[in-house]
Structures are given as structure tokens and as C-alpha cells.
Amino acid sequence: MKIEVRYLSKSGNxxxxxxxxxxxxxxxxxxxxxxxxxDTDLLFLGGATYAFGIDDKMKQYVSGLPQTVKCVxxxxxxxxxxxxxxxxxxxxxxRGIKVADRAFYCRGEFRVMxxxxxxxxxxxxxxxxxxxxx
Length: 134
Ligand SMILES: Cc1cc2nc3c(=O)[nH]c(=O)nc-3n(C[C@H](O)[C@H](O)[C@H](O)COP(=O)(O)O)c2cc1C
Known about the structure:
alpha/beta; Rossmann fold; 34% helix; globular; binds flavin mononucleotide
């Protein structure tokens, strides 16, 4: 089973989650600037909420994702709003790309909010999530 992990992370929170997921499934986590291979069975794709939505670069990434990717499992972080998952899911489904039923979400530090998140417990849960998906 070919597994890949990609993320978009402006301040490092989603990147930490990506690293945990990648470690749990024995692959490397890469930013979305690194293309996935056409024979990807499962892509773990991570993003965050910025100004109530997902970043344009994430939208562009999903638009260009090869439709040969068989399934995408989404993980997201945010300070408050949990809608990034739904937005990434919708963008994937609009392209006819299957989205895994299970997704992972945790809080991410933002200014004075949620200091230290994702914390070690969040990262442990992210690794467990990844193992459950595969
Ligand atoms: C420019 C900016 C805008 C943000 N806007 C929101 C927002 O509208 N709603 C929210 O819940 N969190 C918001 N956040 C918090 C981020 O979603 C949170 O810190 C997330 O973990 C960042 O992930 P990253 O470190 O991988 O970039 C914002 C953060 C930044 C830097």
C-alpha cells in the first residue's frame, strides 16, 4: 500500500501533526509543494484554518491532485473553527476523489490561545488515528 503525507502549515502546528502521522505509518511527511506519486493508495492531507477558511494554496493543491490518488484522509488544526475539514473534503469530492470517513482534528496554538498545542497527547492521538485509517 503506497501511503503519502502532505501538509500546508504556516506556523508549524499542522506540520507537527503531519510528522506524527508519518512516523506512525513509516513514511516521511512533506509539504504540499512535493508532488505525490500517481500510484498513491492513501494520502494523509493536512491543513489549517486561516481567516475562517482554507488557504488558496490548499485549494490549488486539491485542484491539481492526480485523480489516481485512491483515497485521502484529512487532518486539520485550528484555534476555534473546525470547518477546514469540511472545506478540504468538499474540494476533494468535487474532483471525484474519495475521502476517508475518519478525519483528525486538534487545536493549534494561535497568539495567546492554546499554548503548546498540538501537545504530546494530540500527537499521540494523531499517530493512533493514522494507524486506524490504514
Ligand atoms: C493568519 C492566521 C489566521 C487564522 N485564522 C483563524 C480562524 O479564522 N479561525 C481559527 O479557528 N483559527 C485561525 N487561525 C489559527 C490557526 O488555524 C491555528 O493556529 C493552526 O493550528 C495553524 O496551523 P499551522 O501552524 O499549521 O499554520 C489563524 C492563524 C493564522 C496564522
